[in-house]
Amino acid sequence: MLSRNNVSYWDNTKGLAGSLFYVVPEQAAYNLPPTRRFLQQTNQLHLAQQSLSPTAPSSPLYPDGLITPLWIRRHREQIPSVFIAVVDLWDRESIVGNADNGQRGFSDKGPLGVVDPMERDHDTSLAQDLLERRKVSQERGVKFAAVVMLQRSHMEDPSIEDRLNFVRKSAGLDIKNSFYVLPPSNNQEISDFAVNLQRSQYEGSMNYYKEQVKRHKKKRSNLPSTTASVRPGQQPHAGGSQQTLSVQGWMFRYDFKMGMFSECKQDIDNAVKFYESAYGLLIDMFPVTSTITPGAPGLQARTRRWAEAKVLADCLCLKICKFHLYLDAPSTALFNFRRHLIVFKAFSESWKMGDDSFEYWAWLGKQYRVFGDLLDIGTKAGFKLPIPSPGSVVYGSFAGMTEGSKDLNKFSGIGVGNGAAGFGVGPSGDAYVYGGSVGGGRGGGTHGPGAGVNPMLVLQHAGYFYHQSANCSVQRRLRFEMAEEAYPDSAVAPVPTSSRPYPPTLQSMNAERAIDHLALTIELLTKSYEQFKRHKAGRMTLFLASEIAGTYYTAGKFEMALKFFERIGKTYRKEGWNLILTSILKWSIQCAKELGFWENVVEYLIEMMSPDMPATEAKRLSVFDELLSILHTKIHPANTSVHKPLVLPMPQINSFVSCVVQFQTKQAFVASASKFQLQLATQGGQGALPKSFRLSYVLIEFSDPTLNHRFEDPRPLDRTDVQGSSERLSMKDRTGRTVEWINCDRCVYDTENKAWKTIVGLDINPHSTLVIEGALTPEKEQIIQVTKITLGVVTEQWNIALEYPTIECAEEGDQAGSQLNYMPLQKNPPRRQWLEVSRDPEDASSSAKLKFKHLDKGAKRAPLLRESKVEIQTLFKSPAYLDEFFPVVIKVRNGEAFPVAMEMDVELQPIDPSIESLDSVVLDPHAALKSLSAGSFQAAQTLHGIHLSKAGRPLSSSSVVQDLAVGEWAEQTIFVKALEIPTPRTIVCKVRYEVSLENEQKKSSTEKQHAFRVQFIPPFDAAVDYTPQLVHVSETKATQESETALVPILQSNVVDEKYGAVIVPALTHTEVYLMSTRVNNEGPWPVQVKEVKLIIGSESTTLSEPSAGGRDGAGGLGGLSRSHSIGRMRDRKKSLQEVGIRVELLDDGSIGLDGTGRFFEVSGDSESNLRPWRSGNLQTFNHLVRVIAADLDMAPEHIEIGYLRVQWRRFEDDGNATAPFVVTNIPLQPLELPKAQPYMTVDLPKDALVNRPFTARYEIHNPTGKTQELAMTVEPSEGMVYAGVMQATLRILPFANYSIRMNCYPLQAGLTRLPRVKLVINKRKPNRRRGQTSHQLQHPEGHEEVLVKIRGLTKMGGPQNTRTGPGETAVIFVKPETGSLE
Amino acid sequence: MANINISCIAIIGKQNNPLFIKNFNPSHADLKYHYIAHTSCDVMEERATMKAQDMYLGVLFSMEDLSVYGYMTNTKIKFITVLTVPDVIIKDLDMKNIFRRIHAAYVNHASNPFYEIDSEKMIKSKKFEQEIEAIGRGRALEGGNRNSLPATAP
């Protein structure tokens, strides 16, 4: 039961669910303190417990005390609201040593009425005892209850019921809620019993406190009015010890007690009300005169009662705040707290303990701290701090406002008085009108549009209050120190002086002396720090840390302070809060000086020199002077010993000088000097650096340590003469900045420092840029980077190095940036600049001009290569033709100083690396052609290791390497053969050679590349027209040739041996076409054509492969557009064969035009005599081909006829062409084969005459294997009259023809249309479903209209397109009647 | 508006670096406001994650007699206004107006093509300073919301 007593200070639980009772266990002998009335009745007043009433002379409150904590303790620990007696029922077995133990006198034989007298005796006394206790309790209004604990033996005793009844009745206890029996049971049962017991007693408890509240309310109302009677007797005794407690005091007592009882009742609302009322009454006692009891004097300052009242007010205020927090009204709580502070501030001033006294600050600090504790406990116990977000309805808006005004009304409405005036402080004039300012602001409810919040009433977490408290502690210390200064003697009481009329008392001074203010401050700050840390306010903790550090500094713990400063400085530096950083640095310098950490001092001073640190000019100068004096003065306290070398990584601190190094060019070459510049620029504008700062040395470290450069200035500080022999130039730029240029490219290698060294003046002048130009000559190939720049200051005691590691700009593939924590401003590398010195070449004495030139963005590194002094030229006639061996002359000149043997690689770069290239590079085209025709040719895109030799010398294939003399040209012709794709090709030639440097044993290989592009275009362009030849052509041909002209049906089946197929002549379909091919020389170069040949697709395999070996130049692979056409053709040919289509060349190109004759004017072997075919020349070749289709139905739409094979070479005007003839295959457009469907042909007379009828014969063919049903309609024509059938239905058997004769009568002359014959194929579809009647309606006959086309028509427009589209009509030229002479 | 007594206006960049801090209240040192501005970064970031829709973040915290109000733009530029408050209600609308004016001034400044927005350097601009000065002293400047300002400058 007692476990529930662990009530913490924060206990915001209400009602039954929470801890029900505060249980105070007492001994069995405990009796309630007797009431006063009882004592009076029995004349035993002297026995009374110490009375706490101010009326009793023995009371500590006598005569005018308000209330004492004793009273609270009494009600908390002594006077219960429910008194529960736990008693044992007497048991026979408890009589030890009784021989009769276990034997009852009368045993349990008598079931009724027989009672063991011994038991009865005990029971009676027990009942008596309980009765008395009950009576005492009743007098106090305390509920009494008894718990009787039974022993195990009782359980079997049947008389137990009677015994219990007897006891209960005798004690006058109610069976309900007053008398409990606890049988022996286990722990769980006991605790359950305890909970139930508390539950059942809860109401009684509530009643008790309700009664108490009621009683005190009655008492309070019985008090005389405060305003009515100011008891006259009090005035003369004002301040006297005999003064009794005023009515107001009594009112306070009752209010307080009511509040206390309400709190016990767990009625927080009312408790707050009573406490607030009490608080109001109490506060009113502090002013000089009370407002509630007009004229009554207030408490005298610094008296005992005054001090008590002050503490009481503080406690009361805290209690009120706590209850408001319980009620989840944080703003109200804070309001009360702040009001308390404000009110007492005013009081303190009137007590002459204002904010210049340490007492006030001590008190204020305590208030903040306690409030912070309250919040801390509260938040730990689950109290949620409000979030003051704008616009939130709950808080800070209208709701919050009404809450505020409500609680004020509550406050002012409980009789504190006229709320508008509030509390006056008295006649002294410094009246603090509380109600006016706070109440008016809040209660007035001036909430206009939108919400508002009083920021002072936003409850924040405890950290703020601790911090506030710490601030108070600081103030307190300051005040105290002042006071101690005035009154240093701890034995003599401070005497008022004119300047300090109200000194603190000796007692308080001595008490204050015992306090370690700084420790207190640090403790508070640390507490605050932890709070903020818990609330994740990292930057706030930094602030607090700086305060802690400051306190440590004040406390003289410099080391701690320095540690703190160093830690927090980082963040401020990183985020650029330079003002704060400056302050921290200043503090740190102080600390370091105190500690004698001079290295740190120097470091901080150097950072303080940065112009980013805001400071006045005088301050800057003093920093600078201090630094110089530390560094250079021997007698300075800092310089008692030689300091360790101090290395400062400059990117991590703010720097006063920026440092950049770069090379002039991105690339450098071995053994040749490459320039670099070091720019040291002062940061900030004019006045950032007060005086010149002299460096002792500048060390530039490269990735190759043998190239390190060190510039030194060995002058002592006082000498200013120009140092070193280096050339110096200086000028002012537009902004007034001095730019100084020093040429230091003549350095001497200093073995001691292992660096190239020169002596030069290294003064960094205010507002200037110092540019040191140097040059390095690397000796081996490498990538050189600047790794570090060190600015050094060396004096007798000091060796300071300011290090600037060069920052890698994040370039692709570079190693990631270093782990150093760089300053934010240096993240972006500055633009690279190069200070260029331009001199007037004629006048060397005139001052040179200095100008910054921007360099390209790039790394501060120089990849070093040996410079190749080889020249490469290429000669070729662009564009090149595809398929030819295109000659490219590469000329290489040896520009080196000594003869070298050179090798050349040539590489033809593929157009698309993902596709295997067919292009090739060869040295000897004839040989290549031979191997090509032999089939052993390998297309190579690279040529390796061509030994270059002097131009004009014959190409030596021997491996003897010949040196190319200095300045000589080597020449080499390569031949590039590109196939198929007309795009530019990139050709790269690399010239390699080895040179031996004088100081190296190893020869270093050097390479030079040259890349060029050659455009390749196709040499010829071909367009083909296919003209179908009518049957008679084939017939005539056929009759001439063989018996194939016989009626096909009569022919026997022929086994075609070539294709291994059986041809059924009756079913084959033969068509003959005239191929008219126009070949155009597209390119700008004349060519010589040796032969043009049509290679029929079906022959290609048979022709090319066997002939490849035999015939020169006609190799099948030689210019074939392999993947493009051959491959396709093979596929096609195969399929053609499958579908039974054969293509035969009936007649060669000599038809019509004797094309071949024109090229072979002088027939014979002399190829060079071939007439050049100039650019743009067009030549037409005609071929007659026959297409035999075994089954037209299966024939594809397009038939590849074949390609034109052209054997040609480039024609050189000088006639000595060396290039061999190459073969180009020109793919031809495919032949569009007519579809296997009925068609018409028209047979017309050559011309007609007006008014002379003629006959047109339409032939309708059915090449399909099906019977065709055709619907014929004849549409009339304007220029012709036709008499005959206008509509008919025809049926044509498979492979049959049907002819229609039309007699026409022309009416007009000119090209005239014949009446159009429209034939529509009726394709009967299988019957559709009957359900789809609507669909059938649209196609009632269910046929698909297919127009029958007319083939071989001459169109109106001209002869271009002989094939006619649907709906075309035949035309005929009609001559006028008179035109006929016949 | 009359009860708003601006002590300091601070502008903080997105790397929590100070861009502009102007002190209007000589009773505290600049350093104090630097500290306050710096410490408010955390509070603002915490606030901004809680509610992202509004740039005005309300009162961030109060310290001694100073109340700190925050406003964060969408580009994470933070504006801070420190008020010296008597115990009165500060209307959000008034504060919003102040912040809007600061925002407008900042936008004007940032629109200058010569101003490097990400330079992390303190803003040095006479015009901008004048505008902030006007806001801080409660004066109307062109473009300001005159309606929310008192007729006579305090």
TrEMBL record, chain A:
TM ranges: none
GO process terms (BP): vesicle-mediated transport
Location of the Trafficking protein particle complex subunit domain: 305-610
Subcellular location: Golgi apparatus, cis-Golgi network
Organism superkingdom: Eukaryota
InterPro entries recorded: TPC11, TRAPPC11_C
Biased composition (Gly residues): 1110-1119
Main location group: Golgi
UniProt keyword annotations, A-Z: ER-Golgi transport, Golgi apparatus, Transport
Bias-annotated ranges (Basic and acidic residues): 711-721
Region spans: Disordered: 215-244, 711-730, 1101-1128
GO cellular component: Golgi apparatus
Protein name: Trafficking protein particle complex subunit 11
From TrEMBL, chain B:
SUPFAM superfamilies the record matches: SNARE-like (SSF64356)
CDD domains referenced in this protein's UniProt entry, alphabetically: TRAPPC2L
Entry-linked Pfam families: Sedlin_N
InterPro entries noted in UniProt: Longin-like_dom_sf, Sedlin, TRAPPC2L
Record-stated family: Belongs to the TRAPP small subunits family. Sedlin subfamily.
Protein name: Trafficking protein particle complex subunit 2-like protein
Phylogenetic lineage: Eukaryota, Fungi, Fungi incertae sedis, Mucoromycota, Mortierellomycotina
